[in-house]
Amino acid sequence: MCLPSTPFRETASVARVVSEPQEVSMKPLERVPVFGRPANPPRRKVAFSFDGKPHEGLEGDTLAAALLANGIDIVGRSFKLHRPRGIMGSGVEEPNALVQLESGSFDEPNVRATMMPLYPGLQAASQNAWPNACNDALGVMDRFASLLPASFYYKSMMWPNWRFYERFVRPIAGLGKAPKLPDAQKYQKRNVHGDLLVVGGGPAGLGAALAAGRAGLRVILTDDQEKFGGGLLAERFSVDDVPGVQWVEEAVALLEQMPNVQLLPRTNVSGYYENNFLVAAQRVGNHLGPNGQQGRLRERLWRIRARSVVLATGAIERPLVFANNDRPGIMLASAVRRYVNQFGVVPGSRVVIATNNDDAYRTAIDLHSVGVKAICVVDTRAKVGDELRGDLKARGISHYVGYGIRDVVGKRRVKAVELSRHLGDGNLADATMTVGCDLVAMSSGWTPTIHLFSQAGGSLEYKDALACLVPLSCSQSVRVIGAANGDFSLPECIEAGIKAGEAASEQLGAALAVRAQVPKTHAAEHESLRIEPFWFTKSAPTDKQWLDFQYDVKVSDVELAMRENFRSVEHVKRYTTGGMSVDQGKSSNFNILAVMAELSARPIIEVGTTRFRPPYQPVTLGAFAGSTVGELYAPWQTLHAASSHAAAQARFGDYGWRRPEYYPQGDEDVMAATRREVLAVRSGVGMFDGSPLGKIEVKGPDAATFLNRVYVNNLASLKAGSARYAMLTNENGVLIDDGVVVRLAEDHYLVHATSAAVGRVFLLLEEYLQCEWPDLLVHINNVTSQWANVTLSGPKARLVLQQFESDIDFSAERFPHMHFRSGTFAGVPVRILRASFTGEVTYEISVGSRYGRSLWDRIAKVGEPFGIAPYGIEALEVMRTEKGYLHVGADTDGNSNPLDIGWSKIIEKKTNDFIGRRSLQRPADKASGRLEFVGLESVDPKVPLPVGGHFVDAASPKAPAPSAGYVTSACLSPMLNKAIGLGILRNGASRLGEVVNIYAQGRMIAARVVPTAHFDPKGERLNG
Question: Aminomethyltransferase C-terminal domain spans which residues (predicted)?
Answer without folding.
Answer: 933-1016
